[in-house]
Each structure stands twice: as C-alpha cells, then as structure tokens.
Amino acid sequence: MVELSIFGLFKLIISNKMIQEIFETLITDIFLEFIQKIGSYVRWVFLKNKYSYKQIQKQDWNGRVGLFLILSIIAIILVASGY
Q1: CA-wise closest residue to 38 among 18, 68, 58, 11
Q2: Which residue from 17, 58, 78, 81 lies 20 to 30 Å from 1 (Cα-Cα)?
Q3: Model pTM score
Q4: Which residues contact 66 (CB under 8 A, 6 or more apart)?
C-alpha cells in the first residue's frame, strides 16, 4: 500500500494542475490558430484581388469567419443525416 504524505499529495495535485494547464493551453492555441487559418483562407478566396494574404491574415475577422464555416459544415452534416 502506498502512503502519501501531505507534501506528496500537494506535489501530485500541483503536477496534475500543471499538466492540465499545459494541455489546455496547447489545445486552445492550436484550435484558435486552426480556426483563424481557415477564416483567412476563406476570406482570401473572396478578397485576393484587393488584399494580399498577409494583409488578410492580420485582420480581425478571420476567427469569426472560420468558426462560422466550421459550424455551418457541422449543421449541414446534421441536417443531411436527419438529425
């Protein structure tokens, strides 16, 4: 049987929180970057004659456009499957 002291339990809790925070940060950053990339690609298709891709990438609406596109695709799939 393993006995955990107060210090050992505290160390275990801290390490679990640290690991959880690392994963949350990584997943959040990767997810947000993915959404912004999708949004910038979609906007670039429509605005490529007016702006360069680098200019579009710096604008604010990329995340919103990407999220709207992902939610639209999910809604289309759900409607097509009968839900």
Answers
A1: 68
A2: 17
A3: 0.67
A4: 34, 35, 36, 37, 38, 39, 40, 42
Q: Tell me the residue type at 78.
A: L
What's the burial of 70, exposed, middle or buried (CB within 10 Å: 0-12/13-18/19+)? Answer: middle
62, 39 in Cβ contact below 8 A?
yes
> What is the distance between the alpha carbons of residues 52 and 40, in angstroms, rounded to a whole number?
11
CB-based contact 21:13 (threshold 8 Å): no
Rounded-to-integer distance, Cα 66 and Cα 31, Å: 11
Task: Give the tens place of pLDDT for each residue, 9-57.
Answer: 566 666 777 777 877 888 888 888 999 999 999 999 999 999 999 999 9
